[in-house]
Amino acid sequence: MMDSEIGTAIAVSTTDAIYIRGKDLVQDLMGKVDFTSMTFFHLRGRFPTDGERTVLDATLVAVMEHGLTPSSITARLIYSSSPDAMQSAVAAGLLGAGSAFLGVMEDFAHILQDGVLAIQAKKTTAEDFARTTIEGYLREGKSVPGFGHHIHRPDDPRTPRLLQIASDSGVSGMHAELLGAFGAAMDELKERHVTVNATGAVAAVLSDIGFSWKIVRGFALIGRSAGLVGHIAEEQERPLGRAFWAMAEENVPYLGERPGHD
């Protein structure tokens, strides 16, 4: 429910100062607060514990880069077309954070958070919730969020590392435990090992440090923005956009008619 009072509690500027959630940007934050802690503070209104900061930082690093993916290729293509507007290239790349790439962490965080609430209310167990949820997806012929990867098999190397960092930092909780139940149930139902990808791990660790599933995708955007700027920096020095275009012209045949030709 929204507060009936109109206004914002995030920031305000005066002629000689900027205040963010009650802190003076220049005197209290600049040079004293790292970017990850500032991100947490900006969203939550308090600074993170050491464990929360460590997990959030590891998450942002984990999602920053994954090579020539749809988002980075798109950013490079748009930059090569519009080099005077870097923001357009970054924005275009971020539009790729959807139901197939990056954005799926939002879907799985929603599942995990609903599951933990049901378990806490003693309406189900982790094992039953995981099995029932997966069976529902499989019955409808849908991919289960947080599982599978076209490169990382049998395991996504980022997943165990993120979970270990959360555990070592003392902030691993019921969402990570439920992720484990999902992994076991998936392997049993599929009768083979299925990769728990990084988006599944991110969903679990961010849920365990208290972020709503509704904002989880935002961290993919924050981390990947930095990665896209890196790709654009390389595009400036070593262009690939034109090469991608040439590859498409060479390898994608025209299948339509050619009037006047046999």
Task: Walk me through this protein's architecture.
The protein is mainly alpha-helical. It has one domain (49-249): Cytochrome P450-Terp, domain 2 (Cytochrome p450-Terp, domain 2), CATH 1.10.230. It is 60% helix and 3% strand. The protein contains 12 helices and 3 strands; from the N terminus they run βββαααααααααααα. It has helices spanning 25-29, 35-44, 50-64, 70-81, 86-94, 104-120, 126-139, 158-168, 174-190, 198-208, 213-237, 241-251, and strands at 11-13, 18-20, 23-24. A 3-stranded antiparallel β-sheet has the order 1-2-3. A hairpin with a 2-residue loop joins β2 and β3. α3 packs across α11 (213-237) and α6 packs across α10. The mean pLDDT is 92.
Give the structure's gist in a few sentences.
With 262 residues, the chain is mainly α. Helix content is 60%, strand content 3%.
